[in-house]
Design goal:
The complex is a heterodimer of chains A (247) and B (175). With 247 residues, chain A is an alpha+beta fold. Helix content of chain A is 26%, strand content 34%. Chain A has six helices and 16 strands. In chain A, strand 6 and strand 7 form a beta hairpin. Chain A starts with a helix and ends with a helix. Chain B is mainly α and 175 residues long. Chain B is 72% helix and 1% strand. Chain B is built from eight helices and one strand, in the order H-H-H-H-E-H-H-H-H. In chain B, helix 4 packs parallel to helix 7 and helix 7 crosses helix 8. The chains are: A alpha+beta (247), B mainly alpha (175). The interface between A and B is large, with 54 and 62 residues.
Amino acid sequence: MAELERDLRDLALALAFPPAPDLAPAVRQRLAARPARRAFPLRRALVLGTAILLVAVGAVMAVPQARTAVLEWLGLRGVTIERVETAPTVTTDLQDAALQLGEPVTLAEARSRARYEVAVLEALGEPDAVLFYPRAPGGQVSFVYRGEDGEIEALVSQFRAGLDDDFIYKSAGPDTKVEPVTVDGARAWWLEGTPHELLYVDENGEPIFEETRLAENTLLWERGDSTVRLEGDFTKEDALRIAASAR
Amino acid sequence: MERARQGDVSAYEELVHRYQGIAFRTAYLVAGSAADAEEAAQDGFVKAYRALGRFRRGAPFRPWLLQIVANEARNRRRSAGRRAGLELRLAGEASSGGAAPSPEATLVAGERREELLAALERLREEERLVIACRFFLDLSEEETAAALGVRKGTVKSRQSRALEHLRVELEAARG
C-alpha cells in the first residue's frame, strides 16, 4: 500500500492541471461594488443605486474576465442581494427545499424557541407545517402552506438578523426584477422573475448549503428585530397584502 | 485575516492571491471544466468575503474557503449534467526530479503513470475525488472533508477503501 501511495504522489507531480487564472482582479471588482459587509441603510442604498450601477458597469467593461460581475448591491438587514449578469445555477426547487427547513414543531414551540417575536400572516390562514431551524440566527421559523394537490404554494421564513452580518446571500440574474417597497413602513425588497440563489451562514460562521434552489417570487422585509421572507407564486400586490396581514 | 474581516478589501486580496491556486484546482477536480472552475472559485471568494463577519475567529480559513468553492463547483457540474471524470492528463515532460533518467526508464515510468491514472478513472466518483484531494492537491483530511462535504471520519474510511479498490484495479490491469 505504501508503494501505491508513493506512486500516487509521483503521479501528482506529472499531472497537468489547466493553468490557474488570476482571480484577484475580478474578485476586487465585485467587492468594490460594495466594499463593506455592513448593510447600508435603505435611503443611502437608493441614492447610491445609480452610481453603483454605473461604477459596476464600467468595471465589467474594464475587466472582461468578470463573468458574473456584480451590477448592483442592495442591502437589507441580514440579507445581501447581488445582481449578477448570469442567472445562478439551480438544482432543486421550493418543493425539495422545504424538506430542509428544520424540524417540525408546533407554533407555540416555535414561539418559545425563537429569540424574536414570531409573526403569523393571517391572510394565508393556518400553515400546513411549522418548522424550526436552530442554527440560523435567533432560530429560523418557517411556515409551509400547501395547495389541494399537496404542492407547496407559499413558504414564509423568519429569522433575527444582526445589523452587520449577512445571513442570507442571494444573487439575482438579469431577468430578475428587484424593487424596493415598504411593508408597514419598514423597508422591503420585492424580487420577481428568474431564480435567485441562496447561501446561508449560521451563527458559528459555518456556511449552510441548503441545495441551491429555485426561490419563486420573493418579498423580504424587516419586522421588529427580525427579517421575514415570503416566497411563492404571488403578484407583488398579493405579496404586499399578505405581508400587511402579519400579526 | 483580521483586517479582511473588518472589511479591508486589499487585505482580502492577499488572501485571494495566496489561495486562488488551490481554490481553482479544487474546483477543477470537482467541476471537471476549467471555465466552471474559474467561475466557481471566483464566486467562492466573493461569497466567502461576504460571510467573513460570521467566520469563527481563529479558525483556519483554507478549509472554510474550499468548502464554499467546492460547493459552487458541484452546483455547476450538476447543472451542466457532466459526469465527474478527473479530466486530468499527464504533462508532456513528466519528471520526478533527480538526475535525468534513461529514455527507457522514462518510458516505463510514463506507462506506469498512465496505468495508474486509468485505474483511478475506473473508481467510483467519491473514491476518485478523495484520492485526488489527498494525493494530487495534498489537502489535509479536514480540508478534504470540507471540500467534499463529508465528515473527517468519512474521509479516512473512504480513502482506505479507495486505495484498496485502486490496488485491485491495478492488479487486474497488470494481470
